[in-house]
Design brief:
Elements (H helix, E strand, L loop, with lengths): L1 E2 L13 E3 L3 H10 L4 H8 E7 L9 E6 L1 H13 L7 E2 L2 E6 L6 E6 L4 E3 L3 E3 L8 E4 L2 E4 L11 H7 L4 E8 L2 E3 L9 E3 L22 E5 L2 H10 L21 H7 L7 E6 L6 E5 L7 H8 L10 E3 L2 E8 L16 E3 L9 H19 L13 H11 L24 H12 L4 H23 L1 E2 L2 E2 H5 L6 H7 L1 H5 L4 H12 L1 H18 L17 H10 L4 H5 L6 H12 L1
Parallel strand pairs: 1-5, 9-20
Antiparallel strand pairs: 2-4, 3-4, 6-7, 7-8, 10-11, 10-19, 12-19, 13-17, 13-18, 14-15, 15-16, 16-17, 21-22
Length: 571
């Protein structure tokens, strides 16, 4: 693992929180496949909440506020202690290719040394050609006070890999003692807190509160009067920012009819004086930032520890990326995270797992693993990226998943841990725990089918909107004696109440799987297919899709082209 600074592994560039709507599902899936993010979140979290609890189980998502420094230190310790992994401090400046330039040979470091490898994974974050902006201030950087990876972009371009520019930003950091929380709305965590990781049996944590405040008419007036000082409005930033996390000046100008915007004040740690004002990302001059902050209730006397800034960086146009996260034009080169046009720690972690797994399999000359849209949010995300170049940083939402009733946050372990065990990602202890959970849920489902009350089975009772598993536990002592944990009871309830919808989605999944399982050989000759459109042939040759399902979702490939492919593959 080559990193600019080993002490920065797991350093949170922006909000010190993990999870959120759909992002929580991604973290649970990474956990189910043996990843570390959820475990470290449980170990360093300071507030835990389950979002969307008033809605159905398909859209409920866990979120945790973390201690920024503790998360960083815990992740550094885990990575540096990992058996078989060598961490190298340095900057990768070029990708090396074998003779002919069609396959990776390794990387070159800034000091002129080289590392040979049959597969390379690029996880560049916001450092790839990164530049920082705030007012007239501008300098190269991947994040505050950290240098960018400046040279590797040119190396990628030399292989004909097309790059774009994206932009993101971060808010100023505030001194906790200068905030008047007495006039703010308290935002407590859930009691009892629910663990993020399936491997954490119980959380014992003293939770810290967050607070809610809002911008005012005075805030908006100052921002409008100074918007021309923003490098975004001056045209100095060319990259497109995230639609769902815009800067505060963007919100004020674009949504002029809004009288106020919410701001969540989130502590950055137990022993930290820093507070993260979620909702005021900005690249206005520092003096303007302090001026508008002091017009916000609770912040009238606030002290700013560090101004907010924007960061612009390079990413790979994703029509060049295959379903295994390999860059199609250079065999053995994989990419994960912001370099693939995404935003967020959670999206990056999920891609890192997929790309790392497939890079290892590539090095061993094994078939790639491509998760489909019905198996995981990870599959939805990768498939979305491969189909369309994101015009803005991609963010995961539950609405992107057609089969979200099947892809709930509570069943990620049952969906993915058996696969992780087969692939060598998951140990026996974790896999055995999921097998036991599966058996307990199956036994409970069978019991509900057999037991009757007033002429109806307990399953039929549970289908009623007003009846919950809590009612069943009171009615049936044997069910209570089975000792199902609260998350397991929640899964039983979801599966019973939504059985009809789940069965309907399962039929759609079968149709999708038949397409996904039809593999396309990497050496397939598209020139021999008569009637294939020229655009489809060019796109298919460029991307070399791994399956018929992936081919069907490439822009420019028509349904008629897919049918022709199917006929030839069947022969």
């Amino acid at each position: 693992m080559v990193v600019l600074d080993p002490a920065a592994i797991g350093r949170m560039s922006c909000n010190p929180a993990i999870g959120g709507l759909a992002k929580g599902q991604l973290v649970r899936e990474v956990d189910a496949l043996g990843g570390e993010m959820a475990l470290v979140t449980d170990a360093t979290g300071i507030q835990f909440r389950m979002l969307n609890t008033s809605k159905g189980p398909a859209v409920r998502s866990p979120r945790a506020q973390c201690d920024r420094d503790a998360y960083n230190h815990a992740m550094v310790a885990r990575v540096l202690a990992y058996a078989g992994l060598t961490v190298v401090a340095g900057e990768a400046v070029a990708v090396l290719a074998r003779a002919g330039g069609a396959a990776v040979a390794g990387v070159e470091l800034r000091d002129g040394s080289t590392l040979q490898a049959p597969a390379v994974v690029l996880t560049t974050g916001t450092f790839l050609g990164g530049r920082l902006f705030a007012g007239t201030w501008e300098q190269p950087g991947g994040r505050y006070s950290e240098a960018p990876a400046a040279r590797i972009s040119e190396s990628l371009r030399s292989f004909g890999i097309r790059l774009g520019r994206h932009k993101t930003g971060t808010p100023p950091r505030l001194h906790r003692d200068s905030i008047d929380t007495a006039q703010l709305e308290l935002q407590p965590g859930d009691e009892p807190p629910q663990p993020f990781s399936f491997r954490t049996h119980k959380l014992v944590v003293e939770q810290m509160p967050c607070w809610l405040t809002r911008t005012t008419a005075a805030t908006h007036a100052i921002i409008r009067a100074n918007a021309h000082h923003s490098p975004m409005f001056q045209g100095r930033i060319q990259g497109v920012g995230p639609r769902y996390c815009p800067s505060v000046e963007d919100k004020v100008v674009r949504f002029a009819e809004q009288e106020s915007h919410p701001i969540f004040l989130e502590p950055e740690g137990r022993n930290s004086h820093e507070v993260y004002p979620n909702g005021v990302s900005t690249s206005l001059p520092a003096e303007v930032q302090l001026q508008f902050l002091r017009t916000i209730p609770g912040l009238e006397q606030v002290e700013m520890l560090r101004p907010g800034y924007a960061v612009e960086y390079d990413y790979v146009l994703t029509d060049q990326i295959r379903g295994d996260l390999q860059i199609a034009s250079l065999r053995g080169l994989f990419a994960a995270g912001q370099i693939n046009g995404t935003s967020g720690y959670e999206e990056a972690a999920g891609q890192g797992l997929v790309a790392g797994l497939n890079a290892a399999r590539f090095a061993r000359e094994l078939e790639p693993v491509v998760l489909d849209r019905a198996t995981a949010y990870l599959g939805v995300m990768v498939d979305d990226l491969c189909r369309v170049n994101p015009t803005e940083p991609y963010r995961m939402f539950t609405s992107r998943a057609e089969f979200r009733l099947l892809l709930r946050s509570d069943n990620a372990d049952r969906r993915l841990t058996p696969l992780g065990e087969r692939l060598g990602l998951v140990g026996k202890e974790q896999a055995d725990a999921v097998r036991v959970k599966e058996q307990r849920i199956a036994a409970a489902r069978k019991w509900l089918d057999l037991q009757r009350r007033e002429g109806k089975t307990l399953t039929e009772w549970l289908r009623r909107p007003e009846v919950t598993t809590a009612d069943l536990l009171q009615w049936d002592a044997q069910l209570a004696a089975m000792g199902l944990l609260p998350p397991e009871l929640a899964e039983v309830e979801a599966e019973v109440k939504y059985a009809g919808y789940i069965d309907r989605q399962a039929m759609e999944v079968d149709r999708l799987r038949r397409m996904e399982e039809r593999r396309i050989p990497t050496s397939f000759d598209y020139a021999v297919i008569p009637g294939l459109s020229n655009e489809a042939r060019a796109r298919l040759l460029q991307r070399r899709p791994l399956t018929l399902g992936e081919a069907s979702r490439i822009a420019g490939v028509r349904q008629a082209d897919v049918q022709l492919l199917l006929v030839v593959l069947s022969r």
